[in-house]
Design goal:
By secondary structure, this protein is mostly helical. 65% of the residues lie in helices and 0% in strands.
Amino acid sequence: MKLLHLIGVAIRSLIVLSICLSLLFVCYKGNQPMSVDQAPKGMTYFDFMSDRFHAAQSVKPTRCGWGMMLSLAALGPVYSLDYTWVATHPNGFLAKVTAPDPDIPQNVAGANWYEIPEIWWTVVERLSWTMLAKHHPGCYLGPILTRSYALSSLS
């Protein structure tokens, strides 16, 4: 009975540790400059998302802006995992049934386990940029307003 209790405590501890480390990774990467080429120099992911939230509130019709945000929230986690797997396993079944997309990283096949979080974060940034910054005929949130632009427009 004590062995089962010890195993349960170990499993719970590993789950809590995994969640905490994942949150720390996202907080760290979200405060680093984005790796998307089109992003303004020095813009962090959290700056980008803040800008897009403000844009979603001001775009007409507002359901368009919030629809894009909800799409990212609902589909982003699934696509980011799918695209990361496809990028690291380009000959696998999932790669064969996934449509080609420029957001799928290239030349990362066979990446080591410790490289996967960085690849995944790159996919998250690319997907977010594609969904919230690129011009879409049905719903465009407008241009990115960088902090330097926003500060200079206040003066």
